[in-house]
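Table S2 (text version). Query chain:
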Amino acid sequence: MFWRSLPDWCSFSLPGFVLSAIALSSLLTAAVAAAPPSWEYSFPAGGGVGETVEVTAAGKFAHWPTAFWVDRPGLTIEAAEKKGVFKVAVSSKAAPGVYWLRIVDAEGASRPRPFVVARAANVLEKEPNNAVKDAQEISTDNAFNAVVVNGRLNKGGDVDAYLAPLKAGQTLVASLLANRVLESPMDGVLQLCSESGFVLAQNDEARGYDPQIVFTAPADGRYIVRMFAFPTATNSSIAFSGNAKYVYRLTLTTGGFLDHALPLAVSHDTPTKLAVFGWSVAAGAQAQMEALPVETKGAEKDSVFFALPEAANALELPRTELPLVVAAEENSPKNPLDVTLPVLASGRIETAGDVDAFRFTLAKGQKVSFEAAAWRLGFPLDPHLRLFDPQGASVAEVDDTNRKRDAVLNFTAKTAGAHTLQIRDLYRNGGFRFVYRLSMRETRPDFSLTLAADAFVVKQGQTIDIPVKIARQNGFADEIEITAVGLPEGIEATPVLSPAKGETAKAVKLKIMASKITAGNAPYSGVFQIVGRAVKKKGDEKEGAKQQESKHVAGFTLAGSRFPFKSPWLTVIAAESAKK
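Corresponding structure-token output:
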């Protein structure tokens, strides 16, 4: 099961994907007097399939009721009378996963905020539940044997406790979602305790700052899942932390829970067979993701969400144009897996001391790049890469890169022939969750585009200049044509060229003109994209060489966020409204 996000879904002209309490046209023709909505966080931060959830957003909203934008179908959103409060109706056919929402008014749109949908039933935390004796009882006796608790550590010293009855041999997964998706500024700690308060298990960093415990009950009993947090921004105090922003979703399940799939990506162009791993699901359960249409490339989130009918959660898998391979358990330094570059490999370091190996042919002078991802994906593997030449001599190795645990190795081959790349855990650990994704490709000249903002406002009949930062990599020296796509009729963008040298090789300004919006001079508010395409001169390619087009969508990262986005927001204010 999966859904995808498409740029043309991000439009108010398509009913069913964006719903509001009042007409958008009324919003946009309102008097212009304040700043766009400012949305800091919301509670609760998600809901269950088929449920309707009342959400309170914290921020500044000059106009209310308001409109809403959501990046994919499945949610119906309606503003309540009270400012900052809205209802989210989750369709019974909604796909589990993360939905991105914006609040929209006459001045523009807020930054995107996540709303997480799960198949499991959702409940709200009930205070007081600090002490073991006051633990909130949670029942997983339902179709999915799972419950998601929407809670918050409201103040310093706050502790939340939940009571879960278990039978001997029953496995409970307690998984916290807070910092890595909701961006709550908390470093959470989970404890699994006996009913008397004795700590049986504890975790604080299974997935970055978010903890997870997998516990098999040794006997029938009533067990306590207890949580507290420290701030992600360290300070001199040694105390439990909390405030209104410490919002979390805690999944408690004795049923199926997905951890990862191999490969750790899906293909754009061909169906992808997946081996799925987790708890209370068949180990290595086989599933298949169908290939997505080519025109969906460059969507807001170039990924899919995957779920099994028996599992309470969903996995997000990126899409790739690279060929996919999965290392087998027997692929070792003595028996490397033969691959052809470029390739995206996935694998698992099964046991302590285990090493996976890949063999490929390089030409003398060929430049290649290897990038291992594990830690940033929420897995405990600390990748160590080591490269060997055709004679078996070690020629390069790397551990951390840019002060991050994941590793990048760039190399220029000194001799032609079969080279071997080995990957292991730095501390020679291994296990079920020690999985990795490893890209291996030739280093080619390329570029990337970055925007400094996520939203822009222009008055009808006027123009706006959008700064675009250009990063040229590995000696990229082609001219780049930059333009906007996804704009409605009446809004035009004049393509701008970035030459190989000079100041405009590093940054340009794209001019967008709002001369005619639509018939009747209606306003517009929605997403669009800025795309750069390399312009090759005749004779640049060697005769017979395969020409590879360099084309990229400009991205932006929100302040205080680590999530990249590709679709900024554009608001056009009607001329008659702008004069008021």
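Notes on Table S2: Residues 1 and 504 are 45 Å apart (CA to CA). The chain is about 0% helix and 45% strand.
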